[in-house]
Structure formats: structure tokens, C-alpha cells
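Hi everyone, sorry if this is the wrong subforum. Our group has a chain we'd like a structural model of before ordering constructs, and none of us has done structure prediction before. Sequence below.
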Amino acid sequence: MAHLRLVVSEAARRGWRQRFQGRRHQPRYTLRQVLASLLGATLCFVVLGAGGLIVAPFGATAVLLFGNPGSPLAQPRNVVLGSGLAALVSVLCVQCLGTAPWVMGLAVGTTIALGQLLRCLHPPAGALAVLGVLQHAKLGYLLAPVLPGAVLLVLLAAAYHRLSGLGHRYPVHWL
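Answer:
Right subforum, don't worry. Here is the predicted structure as C-alpha cells:
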């Protein structure tokens, strides 16, 4: 019996140590990749700002597009449809239910559920849903800045990755 406790205890210790070794599972980036991500995201926001299409959640989208362009969550379908769904859901929630904190939760939950069902999950879309409720969104929120901003982000990222010479294939797929 004492031997069994020692085995379980050792297994628990090994599991605990492995949890703190997660860094080795994280991707490594070259200085060139880091600088390219910095430049790409900066240029994107210069263009978005000139068009008046900046919303805070697009910063998280830029992290995906320039920091991890191969991620399924960074593909055009996910960015555009996920963002558009979030904006539409937040507009409908505000119009039908108001702007209480529980409505924000419902908007985020609905955005996640629809993203899963339609296979266009995009994490920054959750923030777009919250922002829409916070700002008492009307249909204009979907029409500008969200939808054109998401499309522009994808097009700029696609062009940037083709021209950067880093060998990133973005998008991996359009739809």
C-alpha cells in the first residue's frame, strides 16, 4: 500500500513538472519573422486607420494573421465570417435585449456557438460581440467598421505574406 502511494505521488510530481515545461512546446520565431510580423501588423493598422476601420479586436486578429498565419483560426473564412457573425449577433442582442452584462455573455456565447456550427470560429470575434453590446451597436457596426475591416485585414495579410518572402503560405485556404 505504501508503495502504491509512492508511485501515485511520483506520477503526480512528473505531471506537475511537465505542466511547467510548456515553453518547449511553443513555436520559436527567427528575428526576421518577428520583424516581418511587426512591420506587417503596423502597415495594416496604418491602412485601417486611414479608412476609419479600426476596432480594438482587430489587434487580436492581427496577432493571428501575422504571428500565426497558418492557424485555422486565422484563415479568411474564420476572420470574415466570424467577425461578421459577431457583429450581427451583437446588433440583434442590443436591439432585442438591451445592453446588460448578461446580454454581453449571451452575445459571446452565441458567437461561439454559431462559429462552431458554421465552422468559422475566430477568437477575436468574441471581443467584437462584447464591444458591439458595449457600444449599443446598430447595423452600421456590421457595415463599417467590422465587415470591410475584416475583409481588408485578410487582403492586406495575403498580399503582405506573398510579398514578404518569408515562405508563409497565407491563406492556407480561402473558404
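For your construct planning: Residues 17 and 23 are 12 Å apart (CA to CA). The chain has one domain: 33-164.
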